[in-house]
Amino acid sequence: MKKRIVLLPGDGIGKEVMNSAKEVLTAIAEEYNHSFSFETHEIGGAAIDQYGTPLPETTVDACKQADAVLLGAVGGPKWDNNPSHLRPERGLLGIRKALDLYANLRPIKGFKNLLPASPLKEEVVSGSDLLIVRELTGGIYFGSPSERRENGQVVVDTLSYTRQEIERIIDKAFQAAQGRRGRLTSVDKANVLESSKMWREIVEEKKAQYPDVAVEHLLVDAAAMKLITNPSHFDVIVTENMFGDILSDEASVLTGSLGMLPSASLNEAGVGLYEPVHGSAPDIAGKGIANPTAMILSAALMLRYSFGLEDEAKIIEDAVQSVLDAGYHTADLRIAGGFQVGTAEMTKLIVDYI
Amino acid sequence: MKKRIVLLPGDGIGKEVMNSAKEVLTAIAEEYNHSFSFETHEIGGAAIDQYGTPLPETTVDACKQADAVLLGAVGGPKWDNNPSHLRPERGLLGIRKALDLYANLRPIKGFKNLLPASPLKEEVVSGSDLLIVRELTGGIYFGSPSERRENGQVVVDTLSYTRQEIERIIDKAFQAAQGRRGRLTSVDKANVLESSKMWREIVEEKKAQYPDVAVEHLLVDAAAMKLITNPSHFDVIVTENMFGDILSDEASVLTGSLGMLPSASLNEAGVGLYEPVHGSAPDIAGKGIANPTAMILSAALMLRYSFGLEDEAKIIEDAVQSVLDAGYHTADLRIAGGFQVGTAEMTKLIVDYI
Ligand SMILES: CC(C)[C@H](C(=O)O)[C@@H](O)C(=O)O
Ligand SMILES: CC(C)[C@H](C(=O)O)[C@@H](O)C(=O)O
């Protein structure tokens, strides 16, 4: 298989973990006889420094022509006081919109060895294995007007969705549930928001098309509680952009393995952008101690979702599990005992397994 | 002291726990020589059944003339399929707006005896003692337009705030922090929302007026994580209506004592509405097993915030603590050992202490 992959390392540890992903993909290509070509472009703070914008045209164009995109992380204190349009996260929002990456998938599954690092009691968190499907290109993130009025005395943001935008993400979530344990929790605030009422109606309309999926509706406040009190209740959760931002970050700390969590953002053509859930961690950037696993597992998701290479995805996931089982871990994973290693060594261990 | 208190028991266990609060307040009145008069009115489902609306005029009028309002809980399956304007929670939203109850205060503090019932590890949650200050009458809950457009192909909700609405809640939060440990965390999504940018600016403007308070800003997604990984980091959290809804419910399950949590909703005149954080629990309504503590502690907040009766508030809080220390608890508190009691007995124990 021949594929063009665009790498957007971004800022901070993004650059370091991207190297790891590239090494792992190169190993996979050799082992399974694929041809992956890599092209690196700038985004976020690095792009601001070099091109004066967080999302240069050349980056967008390259991504549009690629078969898939890997992204490291964006942001850092250097750009924190920039005006809005010159902030690193604008690059992230911009590329999501430019590629129409409406479906953000975040699988969260506890690694047995890491559960001791979870803030939750082991009996509460053990067995949790959930997938959050977040709408990523609509809602209050992109609605207009979003402005000051009356001389700065009033401010307005707009949460807006088209029916078609809601339908496609809900279809995506139903399909994801079919490929998993067949349970879908739709999260909204239908007792307050008109958009949530429409969201709930569309879920109700669609469910006849997926008779093998059991659906429930949950209010966002109740979901925020239940994620903590009973995370293993959930299989697939689907929700709109802002609720998804909050709930997926909340869920990401449940299993004690934030440094291990990948994500996929897909469009209708199946082109995807894959990135770790963690940020650019400027405090540890350049020290060679960053955990490359979330980035590497994001590359595995790319193989699975964008290229349909299930075996190759699986072997990466197995490699990570077995390296962990052997007691190796990076500094961020608060595990007692075992062997603490840096980014390069962790990567080598995973590559060796492959 | 002579005070007129309006009781809005509402639905489900609301009626039962309201009786408990009334008994406790009657005991306080006798002991401390106050005269509290009680007037009961309907809200929520009960009001729909009796008057065809979740918030009758007579209820609003009575609340406007009262010195304070106690509310039980609203809602239940009976009204779940009603059209929006005939749903119990409309009564709640309506009374908040009618009384201009812009400041919702939710103190969350672990009871030592209940920590074993927390989903969090004891070392993570112990020592947490935080206050969430949620803006309650603005934002996306009340902004317009909130409607379908283009024949139902588009839906829009509006998050809107006036500068003055943001200023008053931020002032309230700074003042609350002054009366506590002097730390304020303002939560927003300033990297995406214009309203959050203005919110953050106003916090920055105000902080000079409160030099004794240390302020930090946190993005809502980061806050959703940190509440779980490090709840004792927080003293006072201030945030807008929808973020406050989600984060305060998230925070409410951290200490294992949801059945113990009170809340206060205040307006500029200091008239307040006090209610438990828990809901109407239709599944256990009428069985005499509901935990009255959150309602009773809400009455204590009323004595403190609306009437300035600190001693009286404190003795109620001490009573609850000592009854718990003696090993008594209701069925909802998952404690091993001790004595499980019903609503009436729990109330009597608290009254006896007073
Ligand atoms: C950086 C920020 C704009 C972004 C978001 O809110 O979507 C981030 O939090 C995420 O979840 O990817
Ligand atoms: C019932 C509902 C409208 C309400 C809200 O969202 O404000 C409730 O969740 C609360 O927090 O008091």
UniProtKB/TrEMBL annotation, chains A, B:
Mg(2+) binds at residues 221, 245, 249. The keyword Amino-acid biosynthesis applies. It is an enzyme of class 1 (oxidoreductase). One of its GO terms (molecular function) is 3-isopropylmalate dehydrogenase activity. It comes from the Bacteria. Belongs to the isocitrate and isopropylmalate dehydrogenases family. LeuB type 1 subfamily. This is 3-isopropylmalate dehydrogenase. The lineage of its organism: Bacteria, Bacillati, Bacillota, Bacilli, Bacillales. The gene is leuB.
